[in-house]
């Protein structure tokens, strides 16, 4: 029963107007559910992009963004980023900004650059704030300054937020740029939604084995999700499950119950790891616990391999660490040669454990790729010897394959600094195959 209530709450939130304020207590009262049930449903709505929660503002219904527009921030997200408060125009928090303008010029010059759906970053210049709102731009006031009541009324009327923050203009621009950059990195990451097969073949829980056999003949597939009357995934059935079963036996009797499922926002790397770890060939994709599609191991592997061939637009920490190292061949494996940069150090000036782990795992992956293992996931890594490595020290990371099987591999890892061994590790990896 709680699942039905959960789904009703999600549906209720989807039907609310964009910009509506949402509270646990109001949802619980209006839909006659417990506050715990309301809270869990609102959290799921946030995970799937229906609402956004902001300090000192609350939870607001927002427009669900497509991946193509992921780099565009909503004004609600700007409030979070700058740790701000909303002085006016609260109903426009769901809107997205196209670009931000720093108001460090005369009004006559500024007006040439401000357009609709911009964000003007300015101090206590009331004339500039009013001018921006009249054009259709939201306003972010730096330095903790307030604004007058007339401007707040214009913001409310035009549904354009006026946001206050204590940060200075330079800090604000840095924070917003960082948020946009993070979004671009997320945009590059392949998610389930990029490859999901929608409207998949499935079996109702009331189906018989004979129905499964007929669907195998019609589709050439042998694995199907099993759903109840509400399209919730209750199981998965494969040829291994029904081997030897009578034609008129119930699917429910032979299916694998409580199967692993994923959402559209799950990364392909995570799905690949799950498929290898659990030995799964197909995973149902759900939204609000209902079946919307499936992903197969073959599709996941193909997408991951294609992703590796694409030019990267943005640099992750992983990219930044590796950019200072050159890959070279060595007997039985590969080596990475480079220098410990300031960015790779910890608070006392030594190489950070995170940066070293990045170098170790990537050296191991490079060695496995050389052995024709295109895609692998780490099963375990053990560091059993380590000495501190100082800033700007040249190092060599050597990866040597110890053992190779059809499904896994073991790599011996050594870091040398000025000819001395400073780290030893062993990595075990599982191979992602089709």
Automatic annotation (TrEMBL):
Keywords per UniProt: CBS domain
Domain CBS intervals: 196-253, 255-310
InterPro entries registered for this protein in UniProt: CBS_dom (IPR000644), CBS_dom_sf (IPR046342), Diverse_CBS-Domain (IPR051257), DRTGG (IPR010766), HotDog_dom_sf (IPR029069), Ser_kin/Pase_Hpr-like_N_sf (IPR028979), Thioestr_dom (IPR006683), WH-like_DNA-bd_sf (IPR036388)
Keyword ATP-binding listed: no
Signal as UniProt keyword: no
Protein name: CBS domain-containing protein
Organism: Alkalicella caledoniensis
Origin organism lineage: Bacteria, Bacillati, Bacillota, Clostridia, Eubacteriales
């Amino acid at each position: 029963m709680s699942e039905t209530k959960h789904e009703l709450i999600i549906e209720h939130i989807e039907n609310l107007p964009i910009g509506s304020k949402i509270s646990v207590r109001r949802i619980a009262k209006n839909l006659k559910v417990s506050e715990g049930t309301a809270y869990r449903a609102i959290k799921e709505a946030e995970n799937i992009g229906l609402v956004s929660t902001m300090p000192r503002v609350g939870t607001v219904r927002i427009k669900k963004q497509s991946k193509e527009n992921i780099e565009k921030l909503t004004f609600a997200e700007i409030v979070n980023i700058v740790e701000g408060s909303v002085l006016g125009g609260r109903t426009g928090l769901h809107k997205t900004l196209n670009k931000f303008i720093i108001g460090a010029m005369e009004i006559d010059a500024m007006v040439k650059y401000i357009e609709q759906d911009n964000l003007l970053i300015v101090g206590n210049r009331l004339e500039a704030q009013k001018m921006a709102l009249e054009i259709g731009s939201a306003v972010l006031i730096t330095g903790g300054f307030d604004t007058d009541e007339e401007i707040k009324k214009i913001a409310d009327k035009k549904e354009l937020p006026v946001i206050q923050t204590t940060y200075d203009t330079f800090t604000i621009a840095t924070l917003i740029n960082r948020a946009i950059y993070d979004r671009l990195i997320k945009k590059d990451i392949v998610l389930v939604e990029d490859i999901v097969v929608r409207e998949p073949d499935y079996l109702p829980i009331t189906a018989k084995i004979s129905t499964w056999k007929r669907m195998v003949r019609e589709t050439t597939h042998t694995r199907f999700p099993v759903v109840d009357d509400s399209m919730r995934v209750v199981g998965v059935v494969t040829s291994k499950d029904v081997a030897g079963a009578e034609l008129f036996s119930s699917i429910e009797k032979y299916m694998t119950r409580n199967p692993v499922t994923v959402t559209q926002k799950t990364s392909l790397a995570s799905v690949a790891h799950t498929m290898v770890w659990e030995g799964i060939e197909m995973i149902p994709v759900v939204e609000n616990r209902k079946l919307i599609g499936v992903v197969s191991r073959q599709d996941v592997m193909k997408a991951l391999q294609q992703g590796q061939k694409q030019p990267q637009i943005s640099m992750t920490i992983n990219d930044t660490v590796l950019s200072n190292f050159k890959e070279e061949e060595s007997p039985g494996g590969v080596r990475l040669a480079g220098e410990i940069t300031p960015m790779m150090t910890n608070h006392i000036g030594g190489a950070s454990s995170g940066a070293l782990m990045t170098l170790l795992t990537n050296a191991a992956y490079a060695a496995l790729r050389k052995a024709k293992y295109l895609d692998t996931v780490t099963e375990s890594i053990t560091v059993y010897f380590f000495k501190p490595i100082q800033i700007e020290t040249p190092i060599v990371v050597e990866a040597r394959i110890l053992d190779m099987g059809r499904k896994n591999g073991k790599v011996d890892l050594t870091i040398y600094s000025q000819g001395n061994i400073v780290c030893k590790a062993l990595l075990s990896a599982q191979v992602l195959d089709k």
